[in-house]
Amino acid sequence: MSTTETMICRDLHLRHTSTDGKSFAQQHRVWDADRFLAARQAEAANANAKAKDDAPRLAKVELITAEQYRAER
Prior knowledge:
The chain contains 2 helices and 3 strands; from the N terminus they run ββαβα. The chain is α+β, with helices and mostly antiparallel strands.
């Protein structure tokens, strides 16, 4: 990348839910929103796959609006 190019960042608002169902909202400033969201969703799927047989598999990551993020904080 040359020094004259600029990187455009985007704010994402996500709801992270753990395998036990507890969730929290978080803001992330990212360069590649699709790649970041896919990586977080893959981490949640991996957490579900590693859960014990009798444990709930509720981990997920959802894209939420800025208004939802502010309401959940």
